[in-house]
Write a structure and sequence with these properties.
- Two copies of one chain form a homodimer.
- The first copy, chain A, has 20 helices and two strands.
- With about 475 residues, chain A is mainly alpha-helical.
- The first copy, chain A, has a two-stranded parallel ribbon.
- In chain A, helix 6 packs across helix 10, helix 8 packs antiparallel against helix 9 and helix 11 packs antiparallel against helix 12.
- Chain A is elongated, with a radius of gyration of 31 Å.
- At the A-B interface, helix 2, helix 3, helix 6, helix 8 and helix 9 of A face helix 2, helix 3, helix 6, helix 8 and helix 9 of B.
Chain lengths: ~475, ~475
């Protein structure tokens, strides 16, 4: 925009204008630099693992480039050592799961496609010097078409997309270059071994230096989403029923609590990506081998269903037609109690889930919210608002009805969390409390194996589903 | 599971068991094969462009591998010709936008990083044979750390993620291999020219053979989402108010209409990806250069906001506590009319938007739904349900209140669609109708430039925002 000429600028000479532009340049440059520095600092502070990851990539690359500097190592691989460097750049990802998935895909695909490429080359040489290119080109075409189409299968895409790509790549490289270079087998072998070295270097650096486990991220993300809903319910009661009294003071505090749930609405795709990567990860820390990652998606979906209802609740906070405060006051106590108990249930669940403790302590709050819900229902039945305008009653009544539905949602989340806790053999938090509440099938089963620390059969069955 | 031994199997000899297993094998193999064939057929039928894309990849690879077969071409590039093959495999994506983005990223990054790598090599040779590896390793480390961290910036990630990766790759390749190979400049040049050839081959095949424009997909996806909501509203009135009368017959037809909106809820990330790719695409067909793709995201967000409310409406279809049919009957006419008019408005908008026609014909339906809404409000004010139980009234009342809110949502969508139609200079569909309804600022402006077919300044201004 600075290069456009305004009427004033046109009156001054081009040299003056140029000088002005040049004078402003250092300032602009400074501003821009400061902004970049600020953003960089924020990115690093938000998640310091990003800085660590960048250093890890530098470290891995420097390590692998040693192949070039040390003569004994270089003599072993020759120019192909470059493939090791290339592999590190491409394979080393932020999380262990992604790196393992890519590394495994790359190694397996190179191995299989390399072998197939050598086979295709041998077969093609039988056709003579003239027939060879035609035969090879046909093979390349067929393999490329089949593998590219396979990448559209959703299951293949989720786990083996990169492998299929590398398969096409390696098959082409090996079979096509066989036309000019007779040492195809040597080439395929070199390519595979350098990729093996590169992948292993990436994996070692990724796992040994401050590993980022994506499974842990998924676990935390699911827990945090529950907490966000919990925060909403904690703030909602006060915000809705005291909206006219002290609007400005309380809303400042509650605003962030009330808006936190919005990110839950759109968290589906990121959770699915994380679950796909997490399945590549070996057992680590509290997460055993074959940890039921798929069940996290179920909890995530139920949390999102609850978030959709929260979105509806949130609309009533900013509704044009509001129920008069005196009418709202009549259901205030029960509604606030339901909201608070829902908040406590979610936060309790989130807190024990985060620590990977198997407990049904949240059920106390769910039961308590159900009690309040019954009171609320009775209150609604007593027609205590007979003289009021129905149009004005609707918002408050809808809020009440939504709160009743949300209890069911939270109960479903609680059941899913318990299922996961059982399948993943979380350590038991309240074995003494369990026998007191034998009101569900799951609890009945939970009682039976509350003594066994690792109910492995359960894990196997549920994962097999 | 087949290898597990059941008690019966244990009684028979291992040979018998082996025979049984072998006998079952062909059947199992047939079943599996049939399933794969069925799935493949479905994938191809759902989107025949997938088959075309697979054939395109095969074609492009076969074309590029010609470099190896023809001596004059091979002499020009030598073994580096492999990089062209590699580039085609990696760059050729399903859509033109993705291919252009990747190709551009790869070419630019290779060019810049290749130059920088040569520079780094020259600088390092000044340090002597012993100092060179240390200096190069330092450079590689610094570049890798900086570029990897830059990939975390959201804006960089959206557009230049692949470029940053290739930057690290090329810089490493060129600077490191300079230690063993003195012809660094030649190598960098070869690498760049082969990548240029590979990228161009991919682009030519991608654009010239049945191109898939991701911008068109985004356009269609946004339109389809509107239609899905329209379908819901079309079916909702009948389903909710006649639920008890002819539940089984009508629900079969309406079921798919009523469930279609669910995919809208989670469409955010795919729309964002499409918009990112679409920005790489040149003008094509009705989509001009600098088509305002960002505004599609705005419409998408508003449609999703509406879908959240639809989710709330849908809950009332399967609510446990239902308002008795006779009470529902009192607001049936108005609610059905609002729902139908909303459906018509959405479908009208979707239909003209799909054809890229600029018209405000949907406003007739919005106005008509507003009229019905006013009637509904009056009806709700008359307290015509005084004797009924409030708890039973709430569901129907909430449905009515949600329908009122949805009108506002649809109005917002309509405004966003008009904004886009103006910015993208859709052709005018009802210039004669416009002057009759000068009730908004946008319409006032629309009148002024209704004669100009291409109001380019608008495009520029809105894109610059």
């Amino acid at each position: 925009m600075e290069t456009l000429t305004s009427p004033q600028q046109q009156s001054s000479g081009p040299i003056t204008r140029g000088c002005q532009w040049f004078k402003a340049l250092p300032n602009k440059f400074c501003d821009k630099t400061m902004e970049i520095v600020r953003k960089t600092k924020k990115l690093g502070q938000d998640d310091p693992r990003r800085i660590v990851h960048s250093l890890k990539v530098g470290l891995a690359l420097t390590l692998v480039s040693l192949f070039y500097y040390f003569k004994p190592l270089y003599d072993g691989f020759g120019d192909s050592a470059m493939w090791a460097v290339l592999t590190v750049v491409v394979v080393l990802e932020f999380s262990v799961g992604a790196t393992l998935g890519k590394g495994f895909n790359r190694m397996l695909a190179t191995f299989v496609a390399g072998g197939l490429g050598v086979g295709a080359h041998c077969l093609a040489t039988l056709a003579g010097r003239k027939g060879e290119p035609i035969l090879i080109a046909t093979f390349v075409f067929i393999i490329a078409v089949i593998m590219t189409f396979m990448r559209f299968f959703p299951k293949m895409k989720a786990r083996y997309d990169y492998g299929l790509l590398i398969f096409i790549l390696t098959f082409c490289l090996v079979s096509v270059s066989g036309y000019r270079d007779d040492q195809v087998l040597k080439m395929a072998h070199e390519r595979f071994s350098t990729i093996l070295v590169g992948s292993c270097a990436s994996l070692i650096v990724c796992i040994c230096v401050c590993p980022v486990w994506i499974g842990e991220d998924l676990h935390n993300s699911v827990v945090t989403n529950m907490e966000k809903l919990g925060n909403f319910f904690q703030a909602f009661g006060d915000e809705y029923f005291e909206v006219s009294e002290e609007h400005d003071q309380s809303s400042e505090n509650n605003k962030s609590y009330l808006q936190g749930y919005r990110s839950v609405l759109t968290s589906k795709s990121s959770e699915e990506t994380m679950a796909n990567f997490a399945r590549w990860e070996p057992g680590h820390g509290p997460f055993g081998y074959r940890h039921p990652w798929k069940m996290y998606l179920k909890i995530g979906n139920l949390t999102r269903d609850c978030a959709y209802k929260v979105e509806a609740l949130n609309n009533y906070l900013n509704c044009k037609i509001q129920t008069p405060v005196e009418i709202r006051g009549k259901i205030q106590g029960q509604c606030k109690r339901v909201s608070l108990e829902c908040s406590r249930a979610l936060k309790e669940m989130a807190s024990t889930f985060r620590k990977m403790v198997r407990t049904r302590s949240a059920i106390v709050h769910i039961d308590s919210s159900k009690e309040a819900a019954e009171e609320l229902k009775t209150l609604l039945r007593t027609n205590l608002w007979e003289e009021a305008d129905l149009l004005e009653i609707i918002p408050a009544a809808s809020v009440a009805s939504l709160l009743l539905e949300i209890i069911e949602c939270i109960e479903k989340i609680s059941e899913a969390v318990n299922e996961l806790a059982k399948a993943a053999a979380f350590r038991n938090g309240n074995a003494t409390v369990l026998p007191e509440q034998p009101d569900s099938i799951h609890q009945g089963e939970a009682q039976n194996d509350s003594n066994t620390a690792m109910p492995v059969p359960h894990v196997a069955i549920i994962v097999a589903e």
